[in-house]
Amino acid sequence: MVSWDHEADIVIVGYGGAGAAAALTARRMGQSALVIEKQAAGRHTPSTRMSGGLIMAATDAEKAARYLDQCAGGMVPMSLSRVWGQRCTTLVAWLNEVCPGLNLAKVGGAEHPALAGAEAMEVYQPGGAKFRLDPDAGSGRMLFAQLSQAVDTAGAKVLWETPARRFIRSAEGRVEGVEAACGDRAVRVRARKGVVLASGGFEFDEPTKRDFLRAYPMYFYGNPGNTGDGLRMAQEVGAGLWHMNQMVGRAIGRWELPDGSSLAFIIVIGPPGYVITDRYGERFANETMQAQLLHGFYYKLLDYDPDKGIYPRVPCYWFFDEKRRKAGPLTLLNLGVCSVGLYDWSPDNSREIDSGWILKGNSIAEVAAAAGIEDPAAAEASVHAHNEACRNGTPDAYERPRETMIPLEGPPYYCVKLWPGGSNTTGGPQRDEHARVLDVFGAPIPGLYCAGELGQPSGMQYPADGSNLSEAFAFGQIAVEEIVAAAGR
Description:
Layout: E1 6-13, H1 17-28, E2 33-36, H2 47-50, E3 55-58, H3 61-72, H4 78-88, H5 91-98, E4 105-108, E5 121-125, H6 140-154, E6 157-159, E7 164-169, E8 175-182, E9 185-197, H7 206-212, E10 219-220, H8 229-236, E11 241-242, E12 247-256, E13 262-266, E14 275-277, H9 288-291, H10 297-300, E15 316-321, H11 322-327, H12 350-354, E16 359-361, H13 364-371, H14 376-392, E17 413-425, E18 428-429, E19 436-438, E20 444-450, H15 467-488
Parallel strand pairs: 1-2, 1-9, 2-6, 9-20, 10-17
Antiparallel strand pairs: 3-5, 4-5, 7-8, 8-9, 11-18, 12-13, 12-17, 14-15, 15-17, 16-17, 19-20
Helix pairs in contact: 1-6, 1-15, 3-4, 13-14
C-alpha cells in the first residue's frame, strides 16, 4: 500500500509552457492540479520563459494540418498534425482569455511558404510587437510571467525544488502517481485521474545527445534544467520513443565560463557583412538562413567526412568586421540565457573579446589561425572572393540574395566558432492524438499523458516561429481534456 504525501486530480511533471497550459485547463475544468517542478522558484528558467515569446497559430485547421504534416516529413502520423492544426486555430483566443494583458500582435507566418497550407499559418508575439522578435515588445519572460500569474490565480499548486524521479504504478500497470525528491526526503504524489509529463527535453544530457542526435557535440541555449529526467521516467514504464534524432536547430555560440561551466547563445550574424566557413576555410552554404534565424542552416552543419572521421563543419567559423562588432551584441538579449539573468552580454561585444570568446586579428588569415582553422590562407581567399562578388555584382556561388552581399571591411576582423545546436530537442516518448503516451507496442500506457518538447509531434522541419509554444499550449490542453474525459467514461 503506497503512502501518499500529496494528491490531486491532475499531477503535472514540469512547469513550463505545457505544464502551465495543463494546470490552467485542469482548473478551468473544475479539477485540482498539482505541478511538480525541479527548479527553485527564484531560479526557474523554463524554455517558455527563455523564448522570444512567439506563438504559431493558424486560420484554417485543415490547411494547417496539411502544412504540419509536410513539415513532419513522415515522422508524425497525420492524426496528430490534424489535432494540432485544429488547436492552432483557437490558440490566440485561448491565450487572450487566460492572459488578457498579453496584447498579441501578428508578426509573421510559415517558415516554409512553398509547402501546401502554408498560407494558413500565423505567428504572434506579445506586447504589441511591430515586427518579429521586436526587442521593445514582450518576449517569453513577459509571456510566462502572465501564464504563471494565471496559474496562481486559478489555484493550482506548485511544488518547487521537487525533482520527479519515477512514476508509481498500480498492480494493474496504471500510472497513478509520481515519486519525487524534496531535499533528502522522497515524496509520493498521487494523481487521482492522470499524470501529464511536461518535463522538457534532454538538451543537457550529454550521453543521450551523443547516442541519438545527428552529430556531436551539440549545444543548446534553452533551459539548463532539461536533463532528460522525463525521458528516463517514461522509458522505465515502457514508453516507445520516436524521432529521437530530431531537434530545433541553428548554428549557435558556446563558451566556457571562468568557473568551468559553459553557456550557449543564439547568434545573430548580420547585418552588415558575414561569411561562414568550415574548418578548412571554405564556404559551404548560403549563410542567409542563419542571418534570418531560420532553422535550415543547421542541416548544413551535419556533413560527415568518413575518410577523415570528422564533421568538418563542427564547429564552423563566422567572420565579420568592425562594422558588425559595433552594430550591437552578437546575441539577442531578450531571449535565451541573457533574458533570464544567466549572463550579461556587453553592448559593444568588448567583454566577450576580452574573454577570448570573439577572436580578433589584423587580417582574416591571422584571426582564422587564432580560431584554429587548418588553412588560414583558404579562409582569407574565401572572404576575398565574397568581397569581390559583392563589389562586382557577380552571382554568389551559394545563391545568397543580392541584398545580403555586403563586403567585410577592416581591419580589424573577427571570428567566432559556431556549433550545431539550438533551443531544444524534440524526441521523446511517443504519443497519440489524445496526448496519451504509447508503449513499445503502440498501446497507451494507462494514466500517462505527455505535452511539450519531450516527444513533441514535429519532425524534419520546424514549421514556423513559435511552433514549440504552440505545441506546448495545444497539447497541454488536450492532455487534461482527455484525462477528464477518460475519468468520466
